[in-house]
Amino acid sequence: MQTVEYIPVTVDKSHIITIGERLYTESIEFIRELVNNAYDADATEVKITVKKDSVEIEDNGTGMDKEGLIQYFNIGSQYKLYESKSPIYKRDRIGQFGIGKFASLAACRRFEVLTRKGGFAGRVVFDKEEWEKTPSEWTIPLEILPPEAREHDGTTVRLLGLQREFRLEDIEAKIIEGTPLKAPNFKVILNGHTIKPRSLSGHTIPVLEGTPFGPVTGEIIILPETAASTENREHGYRGKGETGNHHTWILWYGNLGKDNGKDKG
Ligand SMILES: Nc1ncnc2c1ncn2[C@@H]1O[C@H](COP(=O)(O)OP(=O)(O)OP(=O)(O)O)[C@@H](O)[C@H]1O
Ligand SMILES: [Mg+2]
Questions:
Q1: All domains of the chain, ordered by start, with CATH?
Q2: In sequence order, what are the residues at sequence separation of 6 or more whose Cβ sits closer than 8 angstroms to the Cβ of residue 150?
Q3: CA-to-CA distance for 47 and 64, rounded, in angstroms?
Q4: In the chain, how long is the greatest CA-to-CA distance?
Q5: pLDDT, tens digit, 9 for 90 and up, residues 100-111
Q6: Is the CB of 78 within 6 Å of ligand 1?
């Protein structure tokens, strides 16, 4: 006779850290993930302070209460898939997978989330070394603070003990390329100066194309080679986050270029 037994599926605690590092091999991706989380939380302003060994991202979004913090540390939560619009500005939320927090994990030794929502304020610290010390303990400390710990609702994430130094211009480029800077009521300030969205001036042809997957909208921008940055030329660029299916294709022309008229997008 056949018998069936059940065995548990388990995950080694240290795997949480290796997953993070493998998912986000380009450790600078944390900046895009954090800014986009602030956008999803209806922040109008995100202030980033980059120092040699730390990065701080402060937003004035809705913040989190205890439930929200538990949600933060849930891996693979599909919350934003079901709550795909933000409550205040009805933004199309960018987050989908519930794994963005791994990007912070991959970039530093320790990160702190300080948040306030109404009468609740709290701080959670995730320290890799502490995490590794206790193989069977799956909790992390939450400090409950008086609401005055922050002036207003919102969230501050601090990354400490960075794996490497991040150059300001690389951080800025990542933000320009990967966050919805053009969205209304949304501003990102990096070490005191407001980041301007990329604007390309050239002949613009709007695109609206029905496809089996729904309409694709966007624009084709035609501009001289000299006006297309190397980065544009390599990657094209798309307004991820502005709307799901909005794309920008860049066509550039020049005198001698072997690549003339090549399109990317
Ligand atoms: N700045 C923030 N303000 C308020 N809530 C936040 C903030 N950052 C994260 N959260 C909460 O923590 C959850 C986890 O964030 P995380 O970035 O890991 O996943 P996600 O944004 O849902 O999806 P994705 O993996 O695609 O980024 C979010 O769904 C949100 O509920
Ligand atoms: Mg996210």
A1: 13-194 (3.30.565.10), 203-264 (no CATH)
A2: 63, 114, 115, 116, 121, 156
A3: 18
A4: 80
A5: 999 999 999 999
A6: no
163, 27 contact by CB (below 8 A): yes
Task: Say how many residues make up the chain.
Answer: 265
Q: What share of the chain is helix, strand, coil (3-state, %, to 5)?
A: 25, 30, 40
Distance CA 252, CA 224 (A): 5
* Residue among 67, 72, 82 to mutate when testing ligand 1 (max atoms within 8 A of CB): 72
- pTM here? 0.80
Query: Does ligand 1 lie within 6 Å of residue 68's CB atom?
Result: yes
Report residue 10's pLDDT band, with 50, 70 and 90 as the boundaries.
Answer: very high
If you take atom 19 of ligand 1, which residue's CA is the nearest one?
A: 98
| Ligand 1 close to Cβ of residue 95 (< 6 A) | yes
